[in-house]
Structures are given as C-alpha cells and as structure tokens.
TrEMBL record:
This is Alpha-1,4 glucan phosphorylase. The keyword tRNA-binding does not apply. It comes from the Bacteria. Phosphorylase is an important allosteric enzyme in carbohydrate metabolism. Enzymes from different sources differ in their regulatory mechanisms and in their natural substrates. However, all known phosphorylases share catalytic and structural properties. Belongs to the glycogen phosphorylase family. CDD domains: GT35_Glycogen_Phosphorylase.
C-alpha cells in the first residue's frame, strides 16, 4: 500500500536571515561567547573565541541550508546520495567563510575584539574522518555538488577517533587515538529523529502470507542504534548547502536496562562497548577474525542506516517506491558500501513486499559504483561463513543475485566455466569468499574508473569478463579537486597574483586560468610568481623548524612526496635516490649541486610492516644526512608526522617539485598531482593514473615523465623477469642499496633493512630497481632546469594555467550527466 506523502507547510513562520556587517558579526560573536560558550570576554581563551566564531558563521549558513532542503522538496528534484566510508573534510571554518564571502568581515569583527582570525583557524581540529585520497575526493565532490546546485547527501560514519594520530618514537611510527571530538564539534547537529535499528546475526524465518506466498523475515539476534549527525556542506558563493550525514552507533537502551535490572552490570557495559566500537575507529585492523567482523559490521551499519534513511525520505515525499530510480541516485564510493546492494534488495522485498525481479530492476536503476583500485587486497572479499553468521538474510540474497547473473551469463552470453568462475560473486579458490567488487558491479547500472588508464585496465583485468557480459556499464570519470580549497583558500598569495594579472573571473570558472599561458614568458610575472612561491616556502620552512628542529632554506628546491605510505607509491624509490645523491655530493664536492629539501609525509596502515619500515628508513637516512657537515646543507630530508588536510594546505603551495612516482598501472588516479600542479609545482612521475591526462593538458614539455609504462610492467611481470641484473648494471643504485643493507643508516641494528633491500634483488614487484636509473637521470635533468629560473617558472606558470581540467566541478558535471541523470544549475 502506498504511503501518504508528507506535506510541508511553505507558509510556516521563519526567522529573518542574518546579516553580515562587521558590527553585526562583532555583536553576535560576543553573544555566542557569552550565551552559548558561557565565557566572559575578559577571561575567554582562544578556543572559546573559536567556538563562538564558528557558531556565528554557522548561523549564516542555516538559512541557505534550510532553503536548499525546501527547494528540493518543493520541486521534486532528484537527490544524489554519496556513500563513502571516508570524508576527509579538514577544517571547515575558513572554507565556510570563504564560500559564503564573509572572510574579511569576520576578520575585521574579530580584530575589533583584539582576536586574530588566522590564529583561530589553526586551532580548529581536522575532522578525523578519512585516511587519504579516497576520503579527500569525497569531500571535494560534496563541495562541488553544492556549488553546482545538485541536491545531495553524503553518508558516512562519525568516527570517534578516526584513523589514528601519527607520532614518531625514535623514527618509528606510533599510532595514538585521534581526539578530534574530545571537546565537541560545533559544526554538527544531532538528528535524534533520524535513528534506525541495525541488526546483526540471528536467523531467517519463512513467513507464509494469507495468499499462500512465502516471504523471508530476518530476525537478528542483536541490534544497535544508528543516530544521525548532520554537518552543512557549503557551495561556492553559497550557491547551495547540502548535508553530510554521519552515523554514530549507540546501544539500544531497553537491552541495557534489562541487563542492569537483572544484576548483570558488567554485561550491560559490554553491550554498550560492543555497540559503540562500530564507530570508534576508521579501518580497524582486519588481520584477525574479530577484526574482520568489526570491519564488516562497520560497513553494513552505515550502509543499512543510509538506505533506511533514503527509503524513509522517499516515501515521505512520494508515497511509493516505484519511482525510486527516477528520484534517487546512490553512488558507492569503492567497495566499502557494496553490501548496500543486498541491503536494498532486502528492504524492498522483505519490508515492502516486492518480487525479486522488480526489486532487482530498482536496485540497478539506483546504484552506481566507483572503483578506486586494481590492487587485489583492496578489492574486498568476506568469508561466506562470516556473512552467513552475521548477515544471514543478505547471504541468501547474494546467492539469489549470483544465480540470476550466472544464468544470464550461461544462457545469453554462452560463458564457459572459466568465465563463470571469474564473474561469480563467490570466489571458490581460497576458501569460499564473497567478492564485494563483483556484487557492486552487477548491482549497479554504472561502474566508473577514476582516470582514463585505470578505466581501460579495469576492462582488461579485474572486471574483464563482467565487462564482456555487460559491455555498456564501465565508463571513465577522472577524479578532480575543488579549486576553492586547493587554490583560493590554501594559497591566497597566488590567488591575489592571478587576480591582479587576469582578473577575478577564474574564481568562478577555473578553466579561465588558461589566460595565464600568455604571461608565462613575462619576466616580471615570473619574478612575482617566484616571490609568492618563496613566501610559501618560508612558511613551510618555519613549520619544519618548529616541529622537527631542522633548519632548511626557502631558496632550496622543495621536493615533496606526501601521500599514504605504500610500496606501490614508491617512497622507497625516492629515499634510495636520496641516498645515492648523498653519496654523489660527498664524492664530488666540487660540483655545483642544487640545494634540495626532500619532504615526506604520510601514514602507514598499522599492520603494514614494510610501509612502517620505509618510514623508519626515511627517518634514519634524514638523521645521518641532515647532520653530516660534509653535505654542507645541500641536501635535507624531512618526514613530517601526522599528515592531514591542514598540513597539506601548508606543504602544497610551497612545493617546487611534486613526486608522483607510483609503479605504472597501480595508481588509479591520484589527486595530489592535481593539487600540486594547480599551485605551480612541476611534476616528476610515471605514466600512471591521472598523470597521463595531466601530461596531455599541461604539455609533455612541462612535466618530467620517466620509467616503464603499465604495459611494460605487465609484460615483465608475466615473464617473471629477475631484477638482479638491473641492480648489477647500476653502480649508483648498487652502492646505495649496499649502504642501506649494511647498516650505515641503522648502526643500532645493522640488519634492519636487509630484507627490505633483499626484496629488490629477489622480486622487486613494484619495479623500484628497474625504474631507478631513469628516475635518477630525470632528477639530474630537474637540477639543470632549476638553475635556469626563467625556464623553471615559465613551466610552473603553465602548470597552473592548464590545470582547469582537474576541477572536481568538471568531474561532478560528468557524473550528473552520464550516471545520475540530474541537472546542473549552478557554477559556470
């Protein structure tokens, strides 16, 4: 039976919108400080002023936030729902002030109160809701959807601690809880009315209806409550305000009361801790059965809560579910929310009485799936036994979907046994496991890669046979970044310089940066560009001195690699080349060496030993090089701990050289390369991910490409080529490896890096040794260019000028047109 739609009274009383004059802002900041924070201005501390200012800025967002929601309800516009386990949103106050255009007014209001806005901005904690590129992409996409006036919700988890706070102990990574919520979050609103029960375990019982049909009813053995917390996401110029809805896991009170009343106080506490553990940390270690179960609970928890919320909202507005694909688009950001396919089928069939075929049509009409990786370990699989125990009804549905897909492959496409095994949702090779990538693929009408190369490799590798079966589903949507945060906000000096030269219109349409091309050869503009870069480098140099006690010169070449620590990203190649350069500087002091500062930052997964060992190696090498007087300060190596969005906002504008050196064919896209290029850094990189499109846009003469291609890597892996000869034929590489493995940089443990280096001789899966000579030669080419500043800055300017293609506005327009079928009414 169709439900009656909820009617919204458009004539309900509303408060007058807030004004933003300096005097009004000053008065409201004082009021918030007094009546919301509870502090007298005479004794208020900086964090009190921060909270009062955030609340004052937030008030200016509320009118547009509510109007955006009313408009969607009134017009019946299709909504986009972006499901992601990560949203690396960073600090929000500067972003919000900039996007609604009140930065200067707030700064003046605070100045009249003897408070410095820039100091307050640095006090705001980064929301610990993500790890790296996947989460930052989700944040950029949310901002772009608001800018383009696309009605959207982001759905994720309100992690108490997020990933972890990274500190160093004698050069080793130490993981500590990230306490970003310790003092509350003034940006969020708890929505207690938007709470949903999430079940686990139990059994499935067939129920015979009066008409003789049989439906399945899942009766979970334990439940938790998902409670919504909403954060506004503001588009550029306040075009629209969308919602980031994060779920917090809480115990269901009656269960706890029963335990307390029966005297089982410890059991009640354990029940509460079990519920709350679901949203405590991002990516709990899954090396044990308990860790795997917690990860699966996390993914199902936020997927189920989000889908229940989506269905509830749709029924409130439209009364029936037949129109769901016309009014709802759900984008699965990687495989983490892939269980949503089975959960939506359960909701439609078990809770709303649909037949399998009708529910399956709706499901595929609603879902789109973004694949972010070709790495086998990142394409999630779950043991069948775990799913049968934790989500028994969903396992039944997965079997039914698999039967449907395999029958289609046999009967329509004539697949053989090998192809059937390849596309099956159940992997039979190493213990029966459910393939979440395959589940997301078959349950979606669109599957997109995130760069041109990655998308083509998807068709040829992980989804080859599914692409044969469904040839029109895979498409490319190259990732992008929001230019508001990654140029206008993080690099105000460069923004002012560009505005002075070509006018302000590029702030609304970043493709207009192309006009800078005409000024790339202007010596005066080159000098101004260089001055902005040096000022940014001076800021980073001071940060390095404060945090690391290392003095670096802003006049050196700042060579930067900041990203998640992983062997395929090849921080190891970078630090080995630094060792080789160190040897060369000492052996040939008479040469005119370019002063160089190598900056690393990034976190290693707690259970990833080699990644943590690489961090230790970087720190060991830096200790030796930075304190060797024979180097004469020509080379400095720095690892900055606890990489996050705010640290990136300081590092990226200061970078001269961006290291994008992943093994070809292994980086799906990369968005760090785009941020660096937009801010006038030159890129040294492989033909991998979006580096290829970056080269095509900035011109091959304005980027440093080296190394084997994806095809060459695949061919050499296929013939099991032995890497030892590459080392034996490279004296500089061999010497560097011998010094590392011998313990030169680890006198306290001479064998620390023996296995790490030995792996390069034995298999070198990530082609560090075989790409070394090409990489080192490119670095010396870069040195020569650095000594020609006119040429260097003309190339840097052309990188900034030609990075308009990297905007996430462009990416979201393509999603809107090709996948979601929603109109774009905002932006240029």
């Amino acid at each position: 039976m169709a439900e009656q739609p909820l009617v919204i009274d458009s004539n309900a009383p509303r408060p007058e919108p807030r004004t933003s004059s300096v005097e009004t802002l000053r008065q409201e900041i004082l009021e918030r400080l007094t009546y919301s924070v509870g502090k007298d201005p005479a004794v208020a501390r900086p964090h009190d002023w921060l909270t009062a200012t955030i609340l004052t800025v937030r008030d200016r967002i509320m009118d547009q936030w509510m109007e955006s929601s009313r408009d969607t309800w009134r017009t019946g516009k299709k909504r986009v729902y972006y499901l992601s386990l990560e949203f690396l949103i960073g600090r929000l106050m500067r972003d919000a002030m900039s996007n609604i255009g009140i930065m200067e007014q707030v700064q003046s209001a605070l100045k009249s109160l003897d408070v410095d806005l820039s100091s307050l901005i640095t006090l705001e904690p980064d929301a610990a809701l993500g790890n790296g590129g996947l989460g930052r992409l989700a944040a950029c996409f949310m901002e772009s959807m608001a800018t383009l006036k696309i009605p959207a919700y982001g759905y994720g988890i309100r992690y108490v601690h997020g990933l972890f706070r990274q500190e160093m102990s004698e050069g080793w990574q130490v993981e500590l809880p990230e306490e970003w919520l310790a003092h509350g979050n003034p940006w969020e609103f708890e929505r207690r009315e938007s709470s949903y029960e999430i079940g686990f375990g139990g059994h499935v019982e067939p129920i015979t209806e009066p008409d003789g049909t049989v439906r399945q009813e899942w009766r979970p053995s334990d439940h938790v409550l998902a409670v919504a917390f909403d954060t506004p996401v503001v588009g550029w110029r306040g075009a629209r305000v969308n919602t980031l809805r994060l779920w917090s896991a809480q115990p269901i009170d009656p269960i706890l009361l029963d335990k307390f009343n029966s005297g089982d106080h410890i059991g009640a506490l354990e029940e509460s801790a079990k519920a709350e553990s679901i949203t405590r940390v991002l990516y709990p270690a899954d090396g044990t059965p308990a860790g795997q179960e917690l990860r699966l609970r996390q993914e199902f928890f936020f997927s189920s809560a989000s889908l229940q919320d989506i269905v509830r909202r749709h029924l409130q507005q439209y009364g029936d579910l037949g129109s769901l694909p016309d009014k709802v688009a759900v984008q699965l950001n990687d495989t983490h929310p892939a269980i949503s396919v089975a959960e939506l089928m359960r909701i439609l069939m078990d809770m709303h009485g649909m037949k399998f075929s009708s529910a399956w049509d709706i499901c595929r009409g609603v879902f789109g799936y973004t694949n972010h990786t070709l790495l086998p370990e990142a394409l999630e699989t779950w043991p069948v036994a775990l799913l049968e125990r934790l989500l028994p009804r969903h396992m039944q549905i997965i079997y039914a979907i698999n039967a449907e897909v395999l029958a289609d492959a046999r009967n329509r496409a004539g697949f053989n046994d090998g192809q059937i095994a390849s596309i099956s949702l159940i992997d039979e090779n190493a213990g029966r496991r459910v393939r979440m990538g395959q589940l997301a693929f078959v349950g979606s009408h669109s599957i997109n890669g995130v760069s041109a190369l990655h998308t083509e490799l998807m068709k040829k590798t992980v989804f080859k046979d599914l692409h044969t079966l469904y040839p029109n589903r895979i498409n490319n949507k190259t990732n992008g970044i929001t230019p508001r945060r990654w140029l206008l906000e993080c690099n105000p000096g460069l923004t002012r310089l560009i505005t002075d030269r070509i006018g302000p219109d590029f702030q609304d349409d970043v493709t207009l940066l192309k006009a800078l091309d005409a000024h790339a050869g202007d010596p005066n503009f080159q000098q101004q560009f260089a001055a902005v870069k040096r000022a940014n480098k001076a800021v980073l140099a001071e940060l390095i001195r404060e945090r690391m006690g290392v003095v670096v010169s802003p006049d050196a070449l700042f060579d930067v690699q900041i990203k998640r620590i992983h062997e395929y990203k090849r921080q190891l190649l970078n630090i080995i080349e630094a060792v080789a350069l160190y040897d060369d500087i000492r052996a040939h002091p008479e040469r005119n060496w370019v002063p160089r500062v190598k900056v690393f930052a990034g976190k290693a997964a707690p259970g990833y030993w080699n990644a943590k060992l690489i961090i230790k190696l970087i720190n060991d090498v830096s200790k030796v090089i930075n304190n060797d007087p024979s180097v004469r300060g020509l080379l400095k190596v720095v690892f900055l701990p606890n990489y996050n969005v705010s640290l990136a906002e300081t590092i990226i504008p200061a970078a001269d050289l961006s290291e994008q050196i992943s093994t070809a064919g292994m980086e799906a896209s990369g968005t760090g390369n785009m941020k660096f290029g937009l801010n006038g850094a030159l890129t040294v990189g492989t033909l991998d991910g979006a580096n290829i499109e970056m080269r095509d846009n900035v011109g091959p003469e304005n980027i440093f490409i080296f190394g084997l291609t994806a095809e060459q890597v695949a061919e050499r892996r296929a013939r099991s080529e032995v890497p030892r000869s590459a080392i034996d034929n490279s004296p500089r590489l061999k010497e560097a490896l011998e010094s590392i493995s011998s313990g030169l940089f680890s006198p306290d443990d001479r064998n620390r890096y023996r296995d790490l280096v030995g792996g390069l001789y034995d298999h070198d899966w990530f082609f560090v040794a075989r790409d070394f000579d090409a990489y080192a030669a490119k670095q010396r080419e870069i040195d020569k260019l650095w000594n020609n500043p006119d040429k260097w800055y003309s190339m840097a300017i052309r990188n900034t000028a030609n990075m308009g293609w990297s905007s996430s506005d462009r990416t979201i327009r393509q999603y809107a047109e090709d996948i979601w079928s929603v109109p774009v009414t905002g932006g240029e």
